[in-house]
Structures are given as structure tokens and as C-alpha cells.
Prior knowledge:
CATH topology: TIM Barrel
Structural class: alpha/beta
Bound molecules: flavin mononucleotide, iron/sulfur cluster
CATH class: Alpha Beta
Oligomer: single chain
Radius of gyration: 20 Å
Shape: globular
Number of domains: 1
Strand order of the largest sheet: 3-4-6-10-11-12-13-14
CATH architecture: Alpha-Beta Barrel
Amino acid sequence: xxxxxxxxxxxxxxxxxxxxxxxxxxxxxxxxxxxxxxxxxxxxxxxxxxxxxxxxxxxxxxxxxxxxxxxxxxxxxxxxxxxxxxxxxxxxxxxxxxxxxxxxxxxxxxxxxxxxxxxxxxxxxxxxxxxxxxxxxxxxxxxxxxxxxxxxxxxxxxxxxxxxxxxxxxxxxxxxxxxxxxxxxxxxxxxxxxxxxxxxxxxxxxxxxxxxxxxxxxxxxxxxxxxxxxxxxxxxxxxxxxxxxxxxxxxxxxxxxxxxxxxxxxxxxxxxxxxxxxxxxxxxxxxxxxxxxxxxxxxxxxxxxxxxxxxxxxxxxxxxxxxxxxxxxxxxxxxxxxxxxxxxxxxxxxxxxxxxxxxxxxxxxxxxxxxxxxxxxxxxxxxxxxxxxxxxxxxxxxx
Length: 399
Ligand SMILES: Cc1cc2nc3c(=O)[nH]c(=O)nc-3n(C[C@H](O)[C@H](O)[C@H](O)COP(=O)(O)O)c2cc1C
Ligand code: SF4
């Protein structure tokens, strides 16, 4: 006799550590551009309320920096007590709408913006950022310990503000990702060399964060599987990193991503290459370089639905303690189901929700729902104003 296994629906509730989400969908972090002075604004709250009213299980406030030295762009929220009231208002509003709230916590490392931070960026070892032309200096050991503590401080503040989850940014070659990458990490101490050593920083951060927040909130990490840069991160090593994090048991889930903010940025998204927008956002003489070499810098990767699935499914059999969040090219109702059927516990969505904030409700109501995001990536450079889908200028203006 065969016992038919119940296949969960993406629209059923599910637990993430101590939290129960009303369904298995998560709005992935997409830089909002709605906190010009680095503080929570009504516009930022309204922006996220669109996803909550549209049915999302948990929405993620994008890139909150754990330290002044960690900004990757102007206008990001610094995790300090001055922002506590605003962050509380944010989580209260999301909860009233029935959704959970997550805060993405990061330190940009080699992607840090010296014009915003006022200091030289740091990296595991000296590094010249080939896109921004900034030089990073080697980080000292006491600074590594400081960053570990700053992640824990930021997570504690997020818990106090009512967040249900913190998402630790271990991807996209930001500070933790740069330690994981043998392209950037040339250290000879216990933080360099083997993948076990290069994962040490990530493990220390998870341990410190978990010690601090206990089981009050969920803790997840966004981890790059590969970045399509020669000599950098690929599956053989990212699978080992995930395994080490899983054995440690400090994370409730890992959101798998790919690509970086350093080189071949389009590997993160696939689809249209917004070279014209890149050029518009650069000053002379970088705009000339952008016009000539933009495609080479950003990389050319045709879009296909569920574009991270082939890599991400390698992680499913490896996880014993940690849930997995599928991300990348989720665009219609069938994709929500496919990700869950493949063994992922949650489904995260970026651009398709920028295009249609109520895609989750639509997909739940009608399984034949097809998303209308065309992956032109024109929204990429709107992050320098108010992030929005270019097909929805009114939506952008009215929020
Ligand atoms: C406009 C825009 C801004 C983004 N900002 C962030 C960010 O702040 N942090 C982050 O980890 N990823 C960011 N991403 C990447 C998305 O979270 C996601 O990894 C990527 O878009 C792939 O998912 P999708 O195919 O569902 O769009 C951004 C993406 C877009 C399009
Ligand atoms: S601009 Fe709109 S349609 Fe184009 S990728 Fe972004 S969300 Fe999708």
C-alpha cells in the first residue's frame, strides 16, 4: 500500500523558527529609495503595505546597514536606536496587515560607498573594485570582531522593533561574501585559505546573533551559490558553506541567491541589460567607459523563468536543520508550486512583485495566473530615486 504524501501548498501557513507565516511567500529585499535621510518614512511603510495587502507572507525591508562604514548607497537605514520608533511603526503596520516583517542586515565591505561612509572600504585582503574603482584595505582582526558584534547589536535592535526575522546578508560579495570568495580573500590566517576558514566569519556572526536574540525571532541568511567571476564563488564551495551553517544549527533558513554587486551584476537578475541607465548614472569619464564596456562589466545573461533552480536544487538534500528559500525568476502561480514541490520551504520574489504587488493573491485565486514582469531590469537604476517598476509611474508617484 502506498501512502500518498501531502504536498504543502505555497499558500498554507508555515513556521520559520519561532514565527508562523500566513503562507510560504517572502518579498525579497529590493532597495526601496524611500528613506532619503536613512530613516523610516510613511512612503517606505506604504510601499511595503502594497505587498502585504497583496498577500505576501513576509516582507523584507532592504539593506539596513549595521555600521556607518557599511553603507552601499546613500539613504540606507542605519540600525541604531534613533531609528527604533520608525522601525516599530514599520513592523506594527505589517503585522496589522497580517504579514510578518524581516530586516535585511548587511555591511557592504568592498561595495561600501566611500562618498557616503567617508572612509576607505574594507575587504579580507587588499582589493581594487573593478566597477567602482575604489581600493579596499585589508580588515584588521579587531575590526572583524567589531563587525560580528555590530551584526548582533543590529539583530537585537530589530527584535526590539518587532521584526519577526533578520536576514543576514552573506551574498553578493558584500563583507561576508567577500570572505567566502577566494578571488577577494587572500588571507593567510584562520579566516583565509580553506573554505572552512573562509566560512568562519559567517559562522561567528550567526553564533553572535543567535546568542543575542535567542529564540525570540527567526534568523535567516542570504547566501550566494555562485557569482560567475573566475576564481570566485561556485557551487562546490557554497554547498560546503551551507553545510557548515546547517551543522551549526543557528539559522532557521537560507535564501539562496547568485551574482554580486562587484562584477557581472546581471548574473543576479538575468534579462535586459540597462546600459543606457548605467551611463546616465555615471559621471564623466566613467560614463564613456560605461557606454563602451557596460555590457562587459554587467555581463549578458538571457533571462529564463526559475533561473536559479538548477543550482538551488543541489542544496535541498544537504540541509538537515535549516529550511531553504527559493529565489530567482518566480513569475507565475505555477512557479510558486514548483519551488515547494521541489522541496523548498519558502518562495521569495523580487521583480515580479515590483511589477504586481498583489501577485500572491492573484496566484492563490487563480492557478493559471501569469506574471507580467518582462525582466527588462529598467527598475534596477530607479533605486537612485524611488525604486519602482517603470511600467507603473503612477504607482511610484503615489506611494
Ligand atoms: C531594484 C532592485 C533592487 C534590489 N535590491 C536588493 C537589496 O537591497 N538587497 C538584496 O539582497 N538584493 C536586492 N535585489 C535583488 C533581489 O532581492 C533578488 O535577489 C533578484 O531580483 C532576483 O530575484 P527575482 O528574479 O525574483 O527578481 C534587488 C533587485 C532589484 C530588481
Ligand atoms: S522594470 Fe518592471 S517589468 Fe522591468 S524588470 Fe523591473 S519590475 Fe519587471
